[in-house]
UniProtKB/TrEMBL annotation:
Catalytic residues as annotated in Swiss-Prot or TrEMBL: 536, 580
Keyword Signal: yes
Similarity annotation: Belongs to the GMC oxidoreductase family.
Record protein name field: GMC oxidoreductase
Cofactor: FAD
The entry's keywords: FAD, Flavoprotein, Signal
Organism: Phanerochaete sordida
One MF term in the entry's GO annotations: oxidoreductase activity, acting on CH-OH group of donors
Pfam family, one: GMC_oxred_C
PROSITE patterns, A to Z: GMC_OXRED_1, GMC_OXRED_2
Binding site for FAD: 119, 266, 535-536
Residue span, Glucose-methanol-choline oxidoreductase N-terminal domain: 117-140, 308-322
Signal peptide: 1-25
Record keyword Mitochondrion present: no
Amino acid sequence: MRCFKAGHAQIALAALVATANVASAALYNDASQLPTLKYDFIVIGAGAAGNVIATRLTENSKFSVLVIEAGISDQGVLGVEVPFLAPSNLPNSSVTWNYSTTPQAALNDRVLAYSRGRVLGGSSSINFLTYTRGSNDEYNRWATLTGDQNWSWNKLSPYYFKSSRLVPPVDGHSTAGLVIPADHGNGPIQVSLPGMPSELDGRVVSTSKASGSQFPFNEDIQSGNSVGVGIAQSTIGGGVRSSSSTAYLEPVLNRPNLDVLIDNTVTRLVQSGTTGRTPIFKQVEFAPSASATRTIVTANNEVILSAGSIGTPQILMLSGIGNPSDLTALGIKSVVNLPDVGQHLQDHPIMSNYFLVNSTNTFDDVLRDPSILNADLAQWQNNNTGLFGNAPANAVAFLRIPSNASIFTTVQDPTAGSGSAHFEMIWADGFAANVIAQPATGHYVTINTAVVSPTSTGSVRLASADPFAFPLIDPGFFSTAFDQFAMLSAVKAARAFMSADAWKGFVISRFGPVGDAESDDDIIAAARDAIITIWHPTSTARMSPKNASWGVVDSQLLVKGVSGLRIVDASVIPIIPSAHTVAPVYILAERAADIIKAAW
Ligand SMILES: Cc1cc2nc3c(=O)[nH]c(=O)nc-3n(C[C@H](O)[C@H](O)[C@H](O)COP(=O)(O)OP(=O)(O)OC[C@H]3O[C@@H](n4cnc5c(N)ncnc54)[C@H](O)[C@@H]3O)c2cc1C
Ligand SMILES: *[C@@H]1O[C@H](CO)[C@@H](O)[C@H](O)[C@H]1NC(C)=O
Ligand SMILES: *[C@@H]1O[C@H](CO)[C@@H](O)[C@H](O)[C@H]1NC(C)=O
Ligand SMILES: *[C@@H]1O[C@H](CO)[C@@H](O)[C@H](O)[C@H]1NC(C)=O
Ligand SMILES: *[C@@H]1O[C@H](CO)[C@@H](O)[C@H](O)[C@H]1NC(C)=O
Ligand SMILES: *[C@@H]1O[C@H](CO)[C@@H](O)[C@H](O)[C@H]1NC(C)=O
Ligand SMILES: *[C@@H]1O[C@H](CO)[C@@H](O)[C@H](O)[C@H]1NC(C)=O
Ligand SMILES: *[C@@H]1O[C@H](CO)[C@@H](O)[C@H](O)[C@H]1NC(C)=O
């Protein structure tokens, strides 16, 4: 489910995403336009978390807030607004950080594209829209690891309900039995089931229901138990992407106590003094480009770092906060010894399993024929309906490896509990091209399989002291026996699922190198050439108890050994959840906003 590499269609898509960077009076794009260089709070990064913080803090009219974002406005960017076109922003576009990984040893030394959102809304503006809260076990583990019960499922529930709400699919069809409205809240992010149901949906649900406990049906994975099969819930309202920009920031841009500066990259935090022996970091340096003059802004109260799992550790290290020997080696003066900065990067490896199918309804022809693509786009532009109002994914399954599996004789179960999955399957009704391009003929169904409780870990390190140089990103994909076993289990589950009665006469054969692999060893070997990222990096500035020897922030999200600096984004999550990460980020950001309001 990534870059659609499909000849003419690709060219058509490239034209579609040409940016219309509509000017907006409420946004600034040059430091000289800022009315002041002093704010109560400075938020770095207008991403999923940063926009929640800016929106909630400015509810209090006595707080002034500046948000600094490296990227452009999301206004009028079709690849951002149209759910189905999400993959067209990748790997490199005007709305992305064009990162790539270091060579991945367990993936035959392949270098993977590792895009992040660089636009208002951050990665919530370019993600593939799948909405998954995560299990109750997941959050209870955060509480245990941080020693702070306020991070437990029960204590976080009000913040989940405050962050999102269920809305009807754009075509208004009944979703009875496919979602539980009571498991949803009343917050700004809109969540819906597909607005144009696919030919897969009924087959997925009936296969699940007929399988009993093998592929259990889960009417709503937001209920606390994440395990099971269901129709995908996506951050879409009325056929349009709902991001932290559209749902949180844009409606409040007219608040007089909020300024948003786009097109400017934070280059480092500046030490503004000391309190006792503790350095204070309440100043932020930024510039529109490497060669431009840098500007410094000052926070009266706090700086909130929300630059994401890659940007946040990069900025900390550029500011002298990290592993002293690594920083000194690059000529950066070490100020705070925090060796965990940039460590423990985790992400979910994912790959595509293709099935040739007996159908002409898949989206394959849309990607091959510009006239079909343009008709679908015209329909979306008319009333936001049709294929383009849907996310690329139709259905999802979160499943566990049986507890008597051989792997558990040597490896401890890495999940937070029985409501959390080891692996995921994501259905798309067409050929979701990534490592291999869409074939010129045929119709396909893709099941993307992902390991959602990986034990591999990696790191984000600086490549140079230049803030405009990309950091070295090493997710360490597929480097453990557990991750390999879990991916193998996922492939076998996908094959078993698609062999069920509901698919007879529909599925013709497996397809591609992964599909051709038969033995366990062959499947793992094929996976090494097929795995990419699902773009869920977390944990590069982990939360831990205040007095712990590990971690970067305490359970109040304050950076250890520093005054005036908090981190609110996916980097503080202690262990990657068995879930897509945007919902957990919204939840933690909502709670963080209350922590900050209470502190001031
Ligand atoms: C392609 C893709 C697909 C995804 N699919 C899904 C999905 O389907 N479902 C799901 O739940 N999650 C998905 N995710 C993950 C999800 O979007 C992220 O977990 C979430 O957005 C992280 O929020 P964040 O606030 O930590 O960071 P981000 O949302 O990435 O925000 C960070 C912001 O900080 C800005 N920034 C960084 N450095 C600087 C700097 N030096 N100066 C100024 N600004 C800076 C960035 O430009 C960005 O706007 C996907 C992500 C990607 C990239
Ligand atoms: C990413 O690549 C696109 C397309 O080449 C380019 O427009 C954009 O400026 C690049 N972004 C960064 C941060 O390098
Ligand atoms: C994306 O940009 C990165 C960094 O600028 C570059 O290394 C990579 O080759 C680009 N990828 C594509 C497909 O253009
Ligand atoms: C937990 O939150 C409550 C308010 O909801 C607060 O009174 C209490 O101090 C918090 N506990 C910790 C450890 O932060
Ligand atoms: C949306 O427009 C399409 C034509 O572009 C039309 O076929 C469809 O009925 C419309 N749907 C609604 C709900 O108006
Ligand atoms: C695990 O248990 C199930 C049924 O309880 C059995 O069918 C299966 O063969 C067992 N698997 C292993 C690896 O022992
Ligand atoms: C394709 O489906 C049709 C019915 O829709 C059926 O007659 C035909 O046998 C199927 N073909 C294959 C190869 O399964
Ligand atoms: C941290 O403090 C808690 C409670 O105050 C204590 O139980 C724990 O042993 C301490 N841990 C360390 C690493 O000092």
